[in-house]
User: What shape does this take?
Amino acid sequence: MATSIVDYKIVARPNNSLSPKKTVNIVALLALFSLSVAIAFGFAGAWMVFPFAGLELLALAYAFYFIHCHADDYESITISGDRLAIEKHYYKNTSQVVFHRYWARVVLRETPSGEHRLWLRSHGKEVEVGHFMNNRQRLALARQLQMRTGAFH
Amino acid sequence: MSTATAAHHHDDHPTGIMRWLTTTNHKDIGTMYLTFSLIMFLVGGSMILAVRAELFQPGLQLMQPEFFNQLIGVHALVMIFAALMPAATGFANWMLPLQLGAPDMALPRLNNWGFWLLPPAAILLTAPFILALFGIGDGAIATGWTFYTPLSVQGGIGVDFAIFAVHLLGISSVMGSINVLVTIFNMRAPGMTLMKMPLFAWGWMITAFLLIATIPVLAGAVTMLLTDRHFGTHFFDAAGGGDPILFQHLFWFFGHPEVYILLLPVWGLIPHILSAFSRKPTYGYKAQIYSFWAIGILSVVVWAHHFFTVGLPIPALLYFMYSTMAISLPLAVLFFCWIATMWKGSMTFETPMLFATGWIILFGIGGLTGLILADVAADAQYHHSYFVVAHFHYTLFAGGIMGIMAGVYYWLPKMTGHMYSETLGKLHFWLTAIAFNVTFIPQFFLGLAGMPRRIPDYALQFSEFNMISTIGAFTLGLSQLIMVYNIVRCVRGGKKAEAKVWEGAEGLEWTLPSPPPYHSFTEQPVIK
Assistant: This one.
């Protein structure tokens, strides 16, 4: 049985200041209040408040669910042996691109605002990495990848 | 290491009209909200100047009573829903991501949609005026902004237009609120705990909670009104077993929190200005947050003070009177904190500070006259009089719009990258403050003397005060053109604004250049 030793691995995730538990608390608090009001007015004869409250809560819950789905977004770069794997998870989709470690090239491009964007390239195929990083972190990542891949352009 | 320079599409964005139609950028959308608000402020203001022209002298001078009522109703709807609320939302769009250290609002596409519902709503509100010129319908809604039944059940197509406009405005507000909540809760920079958040964000957070809690009630009420009008239901028809008072309960369950929905963003913004121009930290940060919460919670349990005179049971009158008066306690805490922030500060009076200090005095008058109206016995005398009109203009024009103006002057250099004219700004402030009082102090006396609101003609004894009020109103209206000119001048050019425009200003928004780059905070700030 072959065993792979990971030489290098980095995982980057976006900032999320809201935990899943707090998300549930916020939606539950608003739902409790909004539905209580709708039920009270329903008993007073104004039942039409109820469908609007329900629709609004669905929209609110979906908005929080949507960002919750994005809370798991990540980018990972794994180097093991002669294999360089880039894995991206965005919303519910995960994609993976594998390059040969020693053929992979690191490409940095500067934007007019002075920011740098980072790509990994091999055999005509290019994958951008470092979406969830700031400029300083991307430059540091580029240096680290340069030391572990074929060349740097 | 070699660095290649290639495609710059990260910084690209559409230009021309497509930029504004399709934009998901928080600053673009904020600018659109603020521009829309300014236009509608002038539209709504023009309507009330026509009303004041009619009231310059007793007798019918310029218009028929029906048209007079339409102008008053649409003025209120436009000012509340299309001027003041979008202005606060515009600031939220512009400033929340900057203040929280976020790259944009959490749900940018929803943000775009939320804005673009507003122009159709404004068209629905005002189109009946135009349609009536072509013989279609009998004009706009003439019930006042409150849609009271049974008058609104019997009204013309203007009521239907207003109902659909309110639905669109409600959807827009809910979408904006959801976006604000998600942004505040999920996109704060690392280290920015809730108790380190700027007060403007706190004010907006509670505003968003209130909107989400109350908009379904308004939507339900106007839909029931629509079905009463066209589909044979009798929700509000006493002859069919319905209850017209139920509509008042529904409307004011939304309508009273709406006052705080309009004011809370301003209460959040003013402390930033007071602190910046007093060169002192905000006094009582936590006390202000707890007061926001107390007022937000109380605001949804006091609604019936708007219709004490309709014939409520005595226990209900007592409950609503005492609960309404209880709001003055947290509000007093806020006033104390605002004044204490300035206490022994190194104060200077640039235009934003002039508006902020003037705002404290004038909004204070609005609050105190509200206490008088909260008294059931006194309210029997003042209800539906010009005293009420003067009171709510001290809260909504002075407390709301003048607060927004303070924010405009405070953040305009940050938004545009240019300094506005201080001379024109100060001229605008003094004319506004003086003309506002000339307009509305006489209305207190008119109300105390017994002049009812929403009448195009009046007894001769009210002539002088009405004349003074009209002169004040036209001065107030025309002086707003100074602000418009100053804004346009500032957008087009002028002295370059520094990143930290005001010496004493604190907050993440002042760490970015003026104007901030198209994409804010591509590097995430860390708050210590």
